[in-house]
Design a protein that fits this description.
Number of strands: 12
Keywords: Acyltransferase, Transferase
GO molecular function: acetyl-CoA C-acyltransferase activity
Shape: globular
Structural class: alpha+beta
Radius of gyration: 20 Å
Family: Belongs to the thiolase-like superfamily. Thiolase family.
Protein name: Acetyl-CoA acetyltransferase
Strand content: 15-25%
Distance between the termini: 21 Å
Largest sheet: 10 strands, mixed
Order of helices and strands: EEHEHEHEHHHEEHEHEHEHHHEE
InterPro entries: Thiolase, Thiolase-like, Thiolase_AS, Thiolase_C, Thiolase_CS, Thiolase_N
């Protein structure tokens, strides 16, 4: 089967909800990363076979197939198509899977996969509005929100509020260290944003990390979903705005264009999980992708498991038997934010650059998804 490689990946800095990117339309923001990808590689836009973007809240400015509109805004020729997909928080990771499958099968040579989300301009659930789940669904499964699912997970795995807050505090610490050490500089494309005073500035630093996010400070926050529970705004991911994308192609095409790939796609998996607990999917998705790759967790040099809520990576560590020092070493969504549709390729870009920076060989990415699903991806750095 054709070897699939990633030549380049970029992302915007992540803005807080109602923050630095709040004045930017999602389609225009996605166009920024699409344009930057081809600029960095010198690939002719006309040679791109497809643009696949993830976006969860497909309403308003994010409706109408944002992948297509963003590609047109970015100056891609009209013959380059675009398609928008929704696999909840793993949408852009699934975009990478679809893109790599198209290339591996020989259907396509060059595909851009990515995602975008403005949780400011198109708030969560604005696409659902007042709709309720089907009674035929609720007759079979207990359908609850992710906050309550998180409380169930915390109880099932006997985690404490202190453990969640400790993990969350460390996420902020790691994120600040990563920013200070320039770990994200290479992957971030500057976005010109207009300030309230009318001035324009180049937005290049993730807006989410908060100074003083100590265990003591986080411990004072009120719980959100259960008065006697553990989940707070401090140990859950932040609502955010952002865009990200990667450029995939066959190894043969990369060689023909004289491009040096960064990583190759080793294995992919996707799985369903309990729709009530909802957020446990990364456990089985990881086991499944390791089996496909013929690897053990100990052979993976670094992993990104999305911090939708603090218990998700903590439970994943317990069940997979992974090394906590290899997990989200640059911080995660609790500190850096979670622009839903963009998170998959955002984390993938960070993972790729970390392998390049540290000289590691294998990286693993897994993301839990609404209604009980998860994707997992293993990449290998190319020498």
């Amino acid at each position: 089967m054709t070897e699939v490689v990633i030549v380049e990946g970029v992302r915007t800095a992540v803005g807080r909800r109602k923050g630095m990117l709040s004045g930017y339309r999602s389609d225009e923001l996605a166009a920024v990363v699409l344009d930057e990808l081809v600029k960095r590689t010198g690939v002719n836009k006309a040679e791109v076979d497809d643009v696949i973007l993830g976006c969860v809240t497909q309403s308003g400015e994010q409706a109408g197939n944002i992948a297509r509109t963003a590609a047109l805004i970015a100056g891609f020729p009209i013959h380059v198509p675009g398609v928008t997909i929704d696999r909840q928080c793993g949408s852009s990771q699934q975009a990478v899977h679809f893109a790599s499958q198209a290339i591996a099968s020989g259907d396509m040579d060059i595909v851009i996969a990515g995602g975008v989300e403005s949780m400011t301009r198109e708030p969560m659930f604005s696409n659902i509005r007042e709709a309720k789940p089907s009674e035929k669904l609720t007759a079979k499964y207990e359908i609850i929100n992710q906050g309550l699912s998180s409380e169930r997970m915390v109880e099932k795995w006997n985690l404490t509020r202190e453990e969640l807050d400790q993990y969350s505090s460390e996420s902020h610490t790691k994120a600040f260290e990563a920013i200070e050490n320039g770990h994200f500089t290479k992957e971030i494309v500057p976005v010109d944003v207009q300030l309230k005073n009318g001035d324009t500035m180049s937005f290049t630093i993730d807006e989410g990390p908060r100074e003083g996010s100590t265990v003591e400070v986080l411990g004072e926050l009120k719980t959100v979903f259960d008065e006697n529970g553990t989940i707070t705004a401090g140990n859950a991911s932040q609502m955010s705005d952002g865009a990200s994308a990667v450029l995939l192609m066959s190894r043969e095409k990369a060689d023909a264009l004289g491009l040096k790939p960064k990583v190759r796609i080793v294995a992919r998996s996707v799985t369903g999980s309990d729709p009530t607990l909802m957020l446990t999917g990364p456990i089985e998705a990881t086991k499944k992708v390791l089996l496909k790759a013929g690897l053990t967790i100990d052979e993976i040099d670094t992993y990104e498991v999305n911090e939708a809520f603090a218990q998700v990576p903590l439970v994943w560590l317990k069940e997979v038997g992974a090394n906590p020092e290899k997990l989200n070493p640059d911080g995660g969504a609790i500190a850096l934010g979670h622009p839903l549709g963009a998170t998959g390729t955002k984390l993938l870009v960070t993972l790729m650059n970390r392998l390049e920076r540290t000289g590691g060989r294998y990286g693993l990415l897994s993301i839990c998804e609404g209604m009980g699903m998860a994707n997992a991806t293993i990449i290998e750095r190319i020498e």
